[in-house]
Specification:
By secondary structure, the chain is mainly alpha-helical. The chain has 5 helices and no strands. The termini are far apart. The C terminus is likely disordered.
Length: 133
Amino acid sequence: MRRSPPQQHADQQRWLPSQREQRPLAAIVAVALIGLTWHHWRAGDVDFEHVQPLVLNDRIDANQAGWPELMLLPGIGETLARRIVAERRSRGRFEQLEDLLHVPGIGKATLDRIRPFLLEPSGNRRAHKKRAP
């Protein structure tokens, strides 16, 4: 017994444009491709090998920076940045950069790596003390 192919509804056949609709669509696609080609040709290729690396131009104040700003320092991730902020809140201001050695995870090598990017704390400011509730 032969089966006849299932009948398709009119809306199932309409997903393809008719021949009359294909010509304007082809013209639109051709114009878009020409425009993209022209734009690419005018802009030129991007040479990623010669892009300058992002450089931190300003120094960070470890006594005022939040953890997102501290993450800009080389080798400092979110966890270590949050530890710096927690240490500052619990002990008060950093009076000198060597006070960062109290932060778990910061040793001499890490401090030497981030020192050029940090402001030296000024000793004439009052220490920030944690207030009792």
